[in-house]
Task: structure prediction
Amino acid sequence: NADAAMYHAKESGRNNYQFYTADMNARASEILLVESQLRRALERDEFVLHYQPQVDMRSGRLVGVEALIRWQHPERGLVGPNQFIPIAEERGLIAAIGNWALREACRQNKAWQRAGLPAIEVAVNLSALQFHHQDIANFIAAQLAEFELDACHLCLEVTESIIMEDAESTVSTMSVLKQMGLRLAIDDFGTGYSSLSYLKRFKADKLKIDRSFVADVPGDSDDSAITRAVISLARNLNLQVIAEGVETAAQWQFLQSEGCDEVQGYLISRPLPAAELGLRLAAGEWLGREILA
Ligand code: C2E
Ligand code: MG
Ligand code: MG
Ligand code: MG
Result:
């Protein structure tokens, strides 16, 4: 397989080129295979969204969920987005898949509301191609109208690389989306290279501290300093701030003492299928006593 070929190439040293070529071919045919399976998956409706809770640190209440796509592959089982989103982007399928996710998240959120559950915000991840190469505002307006969902219950997550790919057009698209009443979050904040001067102009509502920083707080002093700085930046710009990838009580305590608004991570819950999320929404319980104590 491809990894083994790569390993041998590194080990053998001399015949590198040959092994590298074999690896490239393996990768190219894997991409073609996945591409054709992705097209089929769209037709056969093989994608699902799982929803990961986001809780307010002060009240302990669930305030939103992030919709995360998975692929129910007929042979491979449940496949995570890192395995197919990059290929979908490369092969021009991301608009179809991403728009499906956006639409499904709107439909599901309204279904929870119709079932009498407390209204929450659903956050959806966007790819650069969705943001820059289609009329995203019109597409979203059509979904909101069809499902009669209030714009304030939909949050769009964009990354710094989306923003910097075309900063001026992002500023104008974002202001249209804001006028529609949508919520905007900057995902994986700190891992890209966005200009701080744009932060003010983007009219984002929220910064999401990337989990690569959160992972080693409070033990690592550099990551702790970065996390503290992002929280204080967000506060001074009047943005909400949420920490991603919170797994331990020690991380929770650090974030709480630094004034972080919200958290998302395995400590609270893994991403859940819609039905399970609905049950937990109905029960209204999110945090174990050991976390809040
Ligand atoms: P992301 O938007 O930064 O999503 C957070 C990722 O961190 C998710 O991985 C989530 O399952 C994972 N995570 C959450 N809490 C923890 C934790 O405590 N520990 C650890 N180790 N991981 C945690 P997932 O679901 O595999 O998604 C990966 C990425 O795929 C997402 O990163 C997002 O960039 C992309 N993605 C997911 N759904 C969509 C979609 O509908 N459209 C697009 N364009 N991209 C998507
Ligand atoms: Mg995200
Ligand atoms: Mg993220
Ligand atoms: Mg990410």
Remarks:
- The first helix runs from residue 2 to 12.
- The CA atoms of residues 53 and 65 lie 4 Å apart.
